[in-house]
Amino acid sequence: QVQLVESGGGLVQAGASLRLSCAASERTFSRYAMGWFRQAPGKEREFVAAIAWSGGSTYYADVVKGRFTISRDNTKNTIALQMDSLKPEDTAVYYCAADRQGLGGRWAQARKYDLWGQGTQVTVSS
To answer: Pick from 12, 42, 52, 94: CA 20 to 30 A from residue 122's CA?
Structure first.
């Protein structure tokens, strides 16, 4: 069974950068659209970014557009989220997710994704 494992979270100051990674345990990962979501304490899980299986299309939440970059390496079964110019409001647990069902569109909807990692904490201090 495919598993997703996130890494790269940590505590940084505002304006710094972090790079999150998500590793999949099987090669079938390369067929899946992938997404990053985040959840702050007391808030709903929210969409951050997504990438098509080929890497040819990417999608971003308005609040991170221009600061975050999603990418993937299907030869290594990984996706990454490069986060620059971090703000305190970016503090959250970040999750990667896979759309194994091949549902078209709906990139920002959590229900599109049927496999989730355990999350990695990102804390940005002011």
So the answer is: 52
Tokens 């990139």 sit on residue: 107
Tokens matching residue 122: 């990102």
Asked whether 123 and 107 are in contact (CB, 8 A), the reply is: no
The candidate with the shortest Cα–Cα distance to 40, out of 126, 125, 122, is 122
CA distance 92 to 89: 8
**27/42 Cα distance (integer angstroms):** 36
Q: What is the pLDDT of residues 55-105, one digit of tens each?
A: 899 999 999 999 999 999 999 999 999 999 999 999 999 999 999 988 888
* Buried b / exposed e along 42-55 (16+ C-beta atoms within 10 A): eeebebbbbbebee
